[in-house]
Amino acid sequence: MWRSYFIGLSFLVIYLMTTFRYLAPVVHYQLDYAYISEVLCINRDKPQLQCLGKCQLRKKVMRLSQHQQQKETLLQHLICSFNPVESVPDLLALLPPLPESLSTSSLSVLHTPGTCSAALPAPFHPPRHT
User: Fold this and answer.
1) In whole angstroms, what separates CA 97 from the centre of its chain?
2) CA nearest 53: which of 65, 61, 17, 22?
3) Any residues with CB less than 8 A from the CB of 40 and at least 6 apart, and which?
4) At residue 127, what are phi and psi to the nearest 5 degrees?
5) Closest of 69, 71, 67, 34 to residue 53, by C-alpha
6) Cys-Cys link to 36, which of 6, 52, 53, 73 (CB 3.0-4.6 A)?
7) Whole-number Å distance between alpha carbons of 93 and 27
8) What is the DSSP code (8-state) at residue 115?
9) What is the pLDDT of residue 110?
10) Going residue by residue through the chain (130 aa), what tens digit of pLDDT does each one get?
11) What is the Cα gyration radius of the chain?
């Protein structure tokens, strides 16, 4: 019983860490605000910009988003390179023949080898009211 609680709690912690990964640089910026604004800020000689270390925060967030984009690109490449449907025609030959009631037109079309059948879902766009 304790094992199931531990597993559930572990998954919850991992989920929260991935959800709030963009919050960590903001918290770090707030905790070390004085040091970042006085020492690390590249615009401290231009007080009219009122940067106060936000440039450092922007760099960290941009690094996180670029890392996330690289991971998504790599994942998409791996999904496209692994194409398990290539072995489907060979497996279909091992199956018994289909009954007469099922026609070949009702079967889905097989993918051609070398094409990517996996695609990331399109982003949701709400309907426009005109």
Assistant:
1) 42
2) 61
3) 53, 56
4) -65, 145
5) 34
6) 53
7) 59
8) S
9) 47
10) 778 899 999 999 999 888 888 888 888 888 888 888 878 777 777 877 788 788 888 888 888 888 888 888 888 877 776 655 555 566 566 666 666 655 555 444 444 445 554 555 667 777 887 6
11) 26
8 A C-beta contact, residue 44 and residue 38: yes
* Side chain identity at residue 89, one-letter code: P
Q: Which two tokens stand for residue 17?
A: 């860490």
Contact 87, 55 (CB under 8 A): no
Which amino acid appears at position 38 of this protein?
A: E
How far is the C-alpha of 7 from the C-alpha of 91, rounded, in Å?
38
**Owner of token pair 């709690």:** 9
List C-alpha distances in Å: 22 to 14, 28, 58, 73. Answer: 14, 11, 11, 19
Distance of CA 29 to CAs 13, 54, 79, 102, Å?
23, 8, 37, 64
* Nearest-angstrom CA–CA distance, 31 and 23: 12
